[in-house]
Design goal:
- The protein has 106 residues and is an all-beta fold.
- The chain has one domain (3-97).
- Helices cover 0% and strands 45% of the residues.
- It has no helices and 14 strands.
- The protein has strands at residues 3-4, 11-14, 19-22, 26-31, 34-36, 43-46, 51-52, 55-56, 61-66, 72-73, 76-77, 84-88, 94-97, 104-105.
- The strands form 5 sheets. Strands 12-9-6-3-2-13 form a 6-stranded antiparallel sheet, with no helix packed on it. The protein has a two-stranded antiparallel ribbon with strand order 1-14. A two-stranded antiparallel sheet has the order 4-5.
- Strand 2 and strand 3 (19-22) form a beta hairpin.
- The radius of gyration is 14 Å and the shape is elongated.
- This is DUF4280 domain-containing protein.
Length: 106
Amino acid sequence: MPGFLLDQTSVVTCMHAGQAKATAPFPRVTLNKQAVVTQAAAYMVSACPFNVSGAPSPCVSAAWTTVATRVRAGGAPVLLVDSQAQCVPNGTGVLVAPSQVRARGT
């Protein structure tokens, strides 16, 4: 299913509203002068308020499980707006809002 490619300014949040940022976007491929993000880039989550029974258990990072199948940058699949990820350590998903709406991939 085609979707817009993610770049380093795309808004990614965990299900608990913690902000996630790519640690290493791929700078050799750009979209509107912003580096594209591949599956190889780890996403770190900050300010996740999630807790279980009063014990904090916030999301720390997000690992991407579904990515583009036909578009790659530097040999790694790029991330799409409909890519899915699981947060570590609690396994919840992420919400993605693209910052660009011109380049699509599958």
